[in-house]
Amino acid sequence: MERSSQTVAAELKKAVVEFKTTSRRYDPSGPPLTASASAGGSSDFGNGADQRGGRQAQVQQSGDVVLEMKDFGEVDMAILEERNQDAHAILVESKQLNETMQDLAGLVQEQSEQIQAIDGHVTTTAERVDRGNTHLEDATVLQKAARKKQCCILGIVVVILIAICIPVILSQSNSS
Q1: Domain ranges across the chain
Q2: What does the alpha-carbon distance between residue 88 and residue 98 come to, in Å, rounded to a whole number?
Q3: C-alpha of 86 from chain center
Q4: pLDDT tens digits for 112-164?
Q5: What pLDDT sits at residue 157?
Q6: pLDDT per position as a tens digit, 56-71
Q7: Which helix (DSSP H) or strand (DSSP E) does residue 80 occupy?
Q8: What is the pLDDT of residue 136?
Q9: Who has the most CB within 10 Å: 20, 23, 86, 121?
């Protein structure tokens, strides 16, 4: 009797699994079962306590097993639904992240153009400063040369004035 009970239980589990997969194919949203419906009468299975209603007890037990398996199916469905919701949330967040990254890429591109323009201006300014420094050095050299020329011209003028003034003073002192 014990061996046949185990065989019946194994076949019942196999049938429940087939039923579960078939019912999911045709009606995945089926009516929910409560845990209280699956809790009753499972302790009498296979112990032969009720000889007269053995078949009825087995039918009752098989119904309880089906209900328990359905509860497991509901738990699995709840887990799958939660995973589906999480996956959907990740999808939405990844789309938002993608949009943000595209916006950021646009800003970087725009700022990159501005930075390149600024870099060009800095390069041009550096070249002009170098040319200005060269011009200042040239101007310093030219200014020194010009001062030297002025000093020479002033010296020549002073010598000429002295040369003109001395004979004029001497001629006036002799005439007086």
Answers
A1: 2-91
A2: 15
A3: 20
A4: 888 999 999 999 999 999 999 999 999 999 999 999 999 999 999 999 999 99
A5: 95
A6: 555 455 555 555 555 5
A7: helix 54-175
A8: 96
A9: 20
